[in-house]
Design brief:
Mean pLDDT: 91
Distance between the termini: 37 Å
CATH superfamily of the largest domain: Alkaline Phosphatase, subunit A
Structural class: alpha/beta
Largest sheet: 9 strands, mixed
Strand order of the largest sheet: 15-16-17-19-18-20-21-22-23
Number of domains: 3
CATH architecture of the largest domain: 3-Layer(aba) Sandwich
Number of strands: 23
Radius of gyration: 26 Å
CATH topology of the largest domain: Alkaline Phosphatase, subunit A
CATH class of the largest domain: Alpha Beta
Shape: globular
Length: about 675
């Protein structure tokens, strides 16, 4: 059954054209990104609100390309902001809500550890020499350590510090000081201006409250309108500062809201923050770039928060990671060619870092004028079910047409499931570049079903030739993590001509297992790949293993550890990889090494550093000189032992690199390609 299914998918491979990015500047442009906090899409003067006044943002809109049909991946602060940083959906980057479930088994640190592994706009810009300043909300602890900002207001703890949340409300000076610093160093910059405005507490200056209290009898409206006015004033101040510093012409200014809000409602609009309805997930998106972007109001095409990092990276001439799901909004063909966008809604509290479906409340698709919402859980006013709206005729989502148009519902449900179906046993994915992946269960142990995802190049025919393969294990300290972290590297390498495999394994936070069980599953995964190599078109002599952190440990341990075999496996099949690609691996588990307390009863056969045997697989070892989990001294000791045993170990130590290497994504990718090419696992581009 599985073999025939695979054949069907492989035979359906196709190649689609890639975006031709527009708007690359010769001199690196500065970037100012303004993100309002809790503001509905119609609560602006330029969006036609009958009461609210936003003269400074109206002026910005008149100078910008404005997408009035802008949307957000989800209508909640933390996941929405994370999507702007990563260009990924919440179910991909893992941050689906604001906080872990109270009293649950998972800690915030588990989400942080997963999140820091994703490609992020500030870190990618840093690779091109940009300075970047974070202000406002940040939910992952420290903007510099986790997302690669070069400057910030310090650790934010849960969602923001007094200093970071005070920018805008109390002062704009930290932004002005940062701009002066960047100018002094003659470096391009990113200002992430995400003020705590117009978010509650609604405590506007008295002068603004008096102004709006005189215009409405509804107290909550007066306070909210005053907060919007306050936000508008700060945006005007920021634009004025750019003008005064002579920075207007070479600065890209973008504007978006993180999610909606109901208090500016002057009519019966549907929805609010934390809902999939228009008033929760819709926002105007603006781009001002004098001389490069023609000001206009686009009221028909769909835009998305996922588009922001893609657009900005393209504008500065940087490579866009494959895992980013958005389009370049300055690429007219891409904008016109977009057929649909997808929205997901989750509970405020996150259930598990690698199980986004556990807190999923709704999915939605917008295709043309049509919107389908698949509601999983009931709300105060809405029961679970399918909700179909024609947004052109019914922008306030009052008339559910699902019962009248079942065929259209089925069509849109098909689009939703093709995008992300959180429940099937076997999932298929074909990317625009033709790279295809299949996810399926490969092992069942103790009632736990473990999945494996296999990526193939476009138009690949297993019967025609055999390719090299790379099996990648995720990290997470043998406690958490998931295979989704390879959503960027796996398709990239598949596109270059490899088969890439990303397996799950049991971890303590979900399965109550130990590190020894992780290694048992890793060896099972390797044997499964060897067993199916012919079927999948893999050269059995070129099956490498790799991983990051604890996953790097597992990859190395499949080569060197003698024990930790599942007796149900066919032990006549090898689990030893032909090469190793190790990202900051925790390979010393002896006394004083990583995790020794958890493995002290079996570390002698568990620790790769202590088990390197003769003629070991050629290895690429990637780490940073500031890594506290894989100290650089350990990396050099590993390299020395590898060479002593007659093996090759290419050690790359990146300057200022911390565990996770958040600022070194592109250079590590280059070094991996160079290593695999040297082994003949990939072809040089000229071949």
């Amino acid at each position: 059954m599985r073999s025939s299914f695979l054949s069907l998918v492989v035979s359906a491979f196709c190649v689609l054209g890639l975006n031709a990015y527009a708007g690359v500047s010769k001199a690196p442009p500065n970037i100012v990104l303004i993100i309002s906090d809790d503001q509905a899409y119609h609560d602006f003067g330029f969006m036609g609100h009958p009461v609210i006044e936003t003269p400074h943002l109206d002026k910005l809109a008149s100078e910008s390309l404005v997408f009035t049909r802008g949307y957000l991946t989800t209508a909640l602060c933390a996941p929405s902001l994370a999507s702007i940083q990563t260009g990924m959906y919440p179910h991909q980057h893992g941050w689906t809500g604001n906080d872990p479930v109270k009293g649950g088994v998972h800690t915030r640190q588990e989400w942080i550890d997963l999140y820091r592994q994703q490609p992020q706009l500030p870190a990618l810009l840093a690779e091109r020499g940009y300075l970047s300043l974070h202000t406002g909300k940040y939910w992952q602890g420290h903007p510099e350590e986790i997302s690669g900002f070069t400057d910030s207001m310090g650790p934010t703890f849960r969602n923001g510090s007094e200093a970071s949340l005070g920018v805008g409300r109390d002062t704009m000076q930290p932004i002005y000081d940062f701009i002066a610093k960047a100018q002094g160093e003659e470096k391009p910059f990113l200002v992430w201006y995400a003020p705590f405005l117009p978010h509650t507490p609604h405590t506007p200056p008295e002068r603004l409250l008096k102004k709006w209290a005189a215009r409405t009898d509804i107290d909550r409206h007066a306070k909210y309108f005053a907060m919007v006015d306050w936000l508008d004033e700060t945006c005007g101040d920021l634009m004025k500062h750019l003008d005064e510093q002579g920075l207007r012409d070479n600065t890209i200014v973008m504007f978006i809201s993180d999610n909606g809000w109901p208090h500016g409602d002057e009519g019966p609009y549907r929805g609010h923050k934390m809902s999939p309805w228009e008033q929760g997930v819709r926002t105007p998106i603006m781009i001002r770039w004098p001389g490069k972007v023609e000001p206009q109001m686009d009221e028909s095409h769909l835009a998305f928060n996922l588009d922001i990092p893609v657009t900005l990276l393209a504008a500065v001439g940087a490579a866009v990671p494959d895992v980013m799901e958005g389009i370049n909004l300055l690429d007219e063909a891409a904008v016109k060619g977009r057929d649909s966008i997808f929205i997901e809604d989750f509970n405020h509290d996150m259930a598990a870092p690698d199980q986004p479906e556990a807190s999923l409340e709704a999915r939605a698709v917008i295709s043309g004028d049509w919107k389908l919402v698949e509601l999983n859980e009931s709300t105060l006013t809405t029961a679970p079910g399918s909700y179909l709206f024609n947004l052109k005729d019914d922008p306030k989502e009052k008339i559910n047409l699902a019962g009248e148009q079942p065929q259209r519902v089925a069509e849109l449900q098909g689009k939703l499931n093709a995008w992300w179906n959180p429940t099937p046993e076997i999932q298929t994915e074909t990317r625009p570049d033709g790279v295809t992946a299949i996810t399926f269960p490969y092992k069942k142990v103790g009632g736990v079903e473990l999945a494996m995802k296999v990526w193939w190049p476009a138009n690949y025919r297993p019967i025609q030739k055999k390719l090299a393969a790379l099996v990648l294990f995720h990290g997470g300290g043998w406690s958490n993590g998931n295979m989704k972290i390879w959503g960027g590297l796996a398709p990239f390498l598949a596109k270059r001509g490899m088969v890439v495999v990303t397996p799950e394994y049991r971890v303590s936070s979900r399965h109550g297992t130990g590190p020894d069980d992780c290694l048992i599953d890793a060896k099972s995964a390797m044997r499964y790949v060897y067993e199916h190599a012919d079927q999948w078109g893999i050269d059995k002599n070129k099956i490498a293993a790799g991983g990051e952190s604890a996953g790097g440990h597992l990859a190395a341990a499949t080569a060197f550890s003698k024990g930790f075999n599942d007796p149900r496996d066919n032990l006549d099949i090898s689990c030893i990889p032909s090469a190793l690609v190790l990202y900051y691996p925790v390979i010393d588990n002896g006394p004083g090494g990583f995790g020794h307390g958890r493995v002290k009863n079996y570390w002698e056969d568990f620790s790769p550093l202590h088990n390197i045997s003769a003629n070991p697989p050629p290895t690429l070892f990637l780490t940073g000189d500031k890594d506290v989990y894989t100290p650089v001294e350990t990396a050099y000791a590993y390299q020395a032992e590898m060479e002593k045993q007659g093996g090759r170990c290419d050690l790359k130590v990146y300057k200022e690199g911390v565990h996770g290497l958040p600022k070194h994504g592109e250079v590590t990718k280059r070094d991996v390609v160079e290593f695999l090419t040297s082994l003949g696992y990939l072809k040089a581009k000229s071949e």
